[in-house]
Amino acid sequence: MARTTAQRLRGRLAAVTPGRAGRAAAVLAPAAVMTVLGLWGLDRGTMWRDEGATFQVARRSLPEIAHLLGTVDAVHGLYYLFMHAVLALHADEVTLRLPSVAAAAATASLTAAIGCRLARPRVGLWAGLLYAATPFVSHYAQEGRSYALVAAGAALATWLLLRAVEHGASGWWAGYGAVVGVTALLHEFAILLLAAHAVTLLVSRVSWPVWRGWGCAALAACILLAPLAVLSQGQSEQVSWLRTPGYEQAKALLYAFAGPGNLVLAVTLLLIAVGVLLPLPRTGPLPLHAVALPLAVVPPVLLYVASQQQPLFLDRYLLFCLAGVPLLAAAGAERLFGLLPWRGVAAAVGVAAVAGAFVWQLPFQERERLPSSRGDQPARVATAVGAVARPGDAVLFLPHYERRIALFYPRDFTGLKDLTLKRTAAASGTLFGEDVSSTELRTRLARLSPSERVWVVWDTNTVGTRWFRAQRAEYAKSRVLGAMYREESSVYVHGGAVSLYVRR
């Protein structure tokens, strides 16, 4: 009797262990690949504007961060608090980006886990690798902002949804609601994930108990987000620079999610079409296409439509729903490669196809690691100041937000007198500090001796433009400077310049 029981146990282990090992490999391999890609070229030698905001705000004290969030950037409050703890360990650019690398690796792994649960291990493996190989993912995996963490939260919430639908226990629904709520606190547009999941449940025709559990969890997440939504509405001026989206913005999002190379885009769209038109048999709690298609489509469509009234459409705000694209493409690949004999051959062919897509788009991946990939290079501007200015010189920032460079890299500005600073950024609860009036600037310039030099750090993308002339305070400062001083020399870098001004 004991021998028979042992034989049965060995038989079950022999049958189960390979499957579990296959799922484990399918889930871990994409995380490993994403980690390698995330660490590749992580130190670009400069932070760009938004990363610098994270860096300088997160290094403030907790009361100073709270003061800031009452006036600006409330939508990033939870992320700033998280990064406050991270940068307390070691404050540099690599540490700033490491949480995003880890979050992207987790998202790749969760994408694979969802594919394994809804189909089979090789589908999960392909989906996770496709996610990791997407240049758009690499971009935000290497950026010190919250978007990679939001994507990880959305992927975890989707996985928890599958568990909750399958088991129906209140604990799973509570976990799901908590993860959705926290993810939305990292970036409030992630609440659109609930709409995608509602469509998933609708087309899957789930039972009433499932709807009840989901409804309670969704309501709890919305209640958790409500105070932030009210507070951020009063700070909407921060995104006033966004424009009503049209065809070009929709096209750019499509290329970001499924491209950006034309050949890869075409193949991905073909596989998605196969995955949608010939859906895989339902093997998990929900059909794969019913989970992946709403995830990839519903949040972008809702945000696009809403942005026709109040422009809020930006590709990075939607990174959290990209995982639906590789899941659909992997489902289509399963329909095609699944016809091949032997499981190992089919899996290898799929992995080779992903590797080929990565190699084909290698120039895009390399471009993401360049210092110029984010639009500006504050470190180069700071270095230019440090090379030419000497202690006792004066500095003036045009527009005032260029003071961010001194906040990001204060060492290069040591000993320089800020001509327009009224209150520091931390004291004023702002990102860049408060400036004096143009009248006070005239007084301060007049007090300088003829031998004292003035260095002007200015944004070449805005100074002199119609936008700059419309900013009365900024334009007035430039007029006062031009009336009393003249430009003698300039050093230009990508997106900025440092100019020496001497008294007329």
From TrEMBL:
What's one GO MF term for it? pentosyltransferase activity
Give the keywords, sorted.
Cell membrane, Glycosyltransferase, Membrane, Transferase, Transmembrane, Transmembrane helix
Question: Which Pfam families does the protein's record reference?
Answer: PMT_2 (PF13231)
The record's listing under PANTHER family reads: MANNOSYLTRANSFERASE YKCB-RELATED, UNDECAPRENYL PHOSPHATE-ALPHA-4-AMINO-4-DEOXY-L-ARABINOSE ARABINOSYL TRANSFERASE
Q: Which residues form the Glycosyltransferase RgtA/B/C/D-like domain?
A: 81-227
Biological process GO terms, please?
Answer: lipopolysaccharide biosynthetic process; response to iron(III) ion
Q: Does the keyword Membrane apply?
A: yes
Which organism encodes this protein? Streptomyces morookaense (Streptoverticillium morookaense)
User: Subcellular location, in the record's words?
Assistant: Cell membrane
**Topologically, how does it sit relative to the membrane?**
Multi-pass membrane protein
Q: Name one GO cellular component term.
A: plasma membrane
State the protein's name: Glycosyltransferase family 39 protein
Q: Where's it mainly located?
A: membrane
Transmembrane regions listed in the UniProt entry: 21-42, 96-116, 123-141, 147-165, 172-199, 211-231, 252-280, 286-305, 317-333, 345-364
